[in-house]
Request: fold
Amino acid sequence: MPALKRSLEIDAPPTEVWRVLTNPELIREWAAVYLDGVSIRTSWREGEPVTWKAPDGSTQAVGAIAAFQPERLLRIEYDAQARGAFPDTFEIVAKEDRTWLSVSAEKLDEDDLVAAEEAIREIKSLAEESAQIHGLR
Reply:
């Protein structure tokens, strides 16, 4: 199964990129590429569960927070029955006046790979738009 490894420059501070990755309302926007109306439920503490819910209340994915280092690292380990365990990792690095986001995801099918690419573009767009609105860029 394909894996995704991407690194992109975002014209927003790490705080805004982190906010897009962890704010449930913003997550709903970029995760809509997978399923419109999907939501995430978690406490954002290491070891705690993560559950993605469809608008009808059905569970779409289950995992746990494997790493949570604000404005630096978010890793969610999923336990999919058919695919086995796999992580999604978001790493934020500030360089000069730019922020770099590295994203990796494993064991994706072709549809998920396309959606993940679109989600990454949406994360970038949301972070840059938020930075502009808040006068941070």
User: Anything to note?
Assistant: DSSP finds three helices and seven strands in the chain.
